[in-house]
Amino acid sequence: MNIIATEKAPGAIGPYSQAYEVNGMIYSSGQIPVDPATGNIPEGIAAQAEQSCKNVGAILEAAGSGYDKVVKTTCFLADIADFAAFNEVYAKYFISKPARSCVAVRDLPKGVLCEVEAIAVK
After folding, report:
1. Which residues partner with 31 through β-bridges?
2. What is the pLDDT of residues 4-41, one digit of tens each?
3. Active-site residue 114, yes or no?
4. Beta-carbon contacts of residue 99 (< 8 Å; ≥ 6 apart)
5. Among 13, 27, 47, 110, which one is most buried in terms of CB atoms within 10 A?
6. Marked catalytic residue, from 53, 75, 102, 114
């Protein structure tokens, strides 16, 4: 098992790693829309979805993988009414259409509107 870490994605805010590589598979932790350079969180679902997807991408890149090698994502929304706007951004990144679960949850860390995690092949 190898820990994956990059400064191009936000650092863990708890006792976990950004991702792990196990037997050629990459398992990312959920990525919220924190800009790793500034620590800022953008306003609105579209901007937050964009930053969350970019953060996942940075972790995949650090692991030697990429969006095209993602086999499964799990997406969390603070409001299911944001589903269509979230999908519009998500579709720009995950063009290979991996398997996905997308659910609305009561709250997300730091009061963000979305969180994305991924499982990918290296």
Report:
1. 116
2. 999 999 998 789 999 999 999 999 999 999 999 999 99
3. no
4. 71, 72, 73
5. 27
6. 102
